[in-house]
């Protein structure tokens, strides 16, 4: 997560998104597409995280659908999920009233941004350095997408240590 917007080279970003093809090849249910949109890449993940928190708090029944819609918008549709209008449009697509979300965002973005930053700092302190990261047994942080065999090996190791 970047607190300050990142101004990166768009061509380098597009090249980076080619790395998304690795997890896509390993898991057919995880759709990814190399960035081919005319939209610029997001400069920060904070707006999407703030929007998700706002939706989760005000419309909890829509939170999971919004999360999935955000992931699809970014990884499949190549939409800039740091753009406020895109975030509203995505929320509306899952049944969240856009005008109400705009009002809530106007009132709560500053405080919610601080909560997002606090969560990020807490995650870093816990050893989280990548997305995704899974913390097993409150002790082992496993960064990045991993093949099933890696999970099996780690879980077996943790179970053996408990025995």
Q: Count of helical segments?
A: 7
Rounded to the nearest angstrom, the distance between the terminal CA atoms is 38 Å
* CATH H level, superfamily name of the largest domain: putative protein disulfide isomerase domain
Number of discrete domains:
2
CATH architecture of the largest domain: Orthogonal Bundle
Shape: globular
What amount of the residues lies in strands? under 5%
In N-to-C order, the SSE pattern is HHHHHHEEH
Order the strands across the largest sheet as they lie in space.
1-2
CATH class of the largest domain: Mainly Alpha
The major pleated sheet works out as: 2 strands, antiparallel
Tell how many strands the DSSP assignment holds: 2
Q: What is the CATH fold-level name of the largest domain?
A: Cyclin A, domain 1
Describe this structure in words.
This protein has 2 domains: about 10-125, putative protein disulfide isomerase domain (Cyclin A, domain 1), CATH 1.10.472; about 125-163, no CATH class. A hairpin with a 3-residue loop joins strand 1 (about 135) and strand 2. The protein contains 7 helices and 2 strands. It has helices at about 10-15, 20-25, 45-60, 65-75, 85-95, 100-125, 150-160, and strands spanning about 135, 140-145. The model has no long low-confidence stretch (mean pLDDT about 90). Helix 3 runs antiparallel to helix 4, helix 3 packs parallel to helix 5 (about 85-95) and helix 4 crosses helix 5 (about 85-95). The chain has about 160 residues and is mainly alpha-helical. It is globular, with a radius of gyration of 18 Å.
């Amino acid at each position: 997560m970047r607190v300050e917007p990142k101004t990166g080279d768009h061509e380098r970003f597009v090249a980076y998104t080619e790395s998304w093809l690795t997890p896509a090849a390993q898991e057919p249910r995880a759709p990814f597409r190399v960035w081919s949109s005319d939209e610029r890449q997001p400069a920060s993940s904070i707006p999407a995280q703030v929007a998700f928190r706002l939706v989760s708090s005000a419309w909890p029944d829509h939170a999971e659908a919004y999360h999935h819609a955000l992931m699809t918008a970014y990884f499949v549709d190549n939409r800039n999920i740091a753009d406020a209008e895109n975030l509203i449009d995505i929320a509306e697509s899952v049944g969240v009233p856009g005008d109400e979300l705009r009002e809530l965002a106007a009132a709560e973005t500053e405080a919610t941004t601080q909560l997002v930053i606090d969560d990020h700092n807490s995650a870093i302190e816990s050893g989280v350095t990548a997305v995704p990261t899974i913390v097993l047994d409150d002790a082992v942080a496993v960064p990045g997408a991993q093949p099933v065999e890696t999970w099996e090996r780690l879980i077996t190791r943790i179970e053996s240590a408990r025995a």
